[in-house]
Amino acid sequence: MSLDTIKKQELINSHQTHGTDTGSVEVQVAMLSERISQLSGHLQKNIHDFSSRQGLLKMIGRRKRLLGYLRSNSEARYSSLIQKLGIRG
Predict the structure, then answer these.
(1) For residue 52, what is the enclosing H or E element?
(2) The model's pTM
(3) What is the pLDDT along the chain (89 residues), one digit of tens a residue?
């Protein structure tokens, strides 16, 4: 359930803060959000895949921690990111 290189590069290009940025919080959260959405679709079809469910919960927790870090450092970047990704109502 990993991202292919083309999709990963599109996510990096759309969320990077400067030209060589590949690991900022925004990029990491965007990649995690994409993987979470893919895995959620997989789990809707495969209800009894418990190991994937555990991985999904770990990814959700990691994304939550990264968002908390971003919110504590820069409220403006946090609000623009959640608006861009559409992950919080």
Answers:
(1) helix 50-73
(2) 0.91
(3) 678 899 999 999 999 988 898 899 999 999 999 999 999 999 999 999 999 999 999 999 999 999 999 999 999 999 999 999 999 84
User: Which domains are assigned to the chain?
Assistant: 5-85 (1.10.287.10)
DSSP code of 19?
Answer: T
Tokens matching residue 19: 């030209």
Residues whose CB falls within 8 Å of the CB of residue 79, separated by 6 or more in sequence, listed in order: none
Looking at residue 13, its pLDDT comes to: 93
| CB-neighbour burial class of residue 47 (10 A; exposed 0-12, middle 13-18, buried 19+) | exposed
Angstrom distances, CA of residue 70 to CA of 34, 40, 41, 64, 67: 18, 24, 27, 10, 5
Cα radius of gyration (the chain): 14
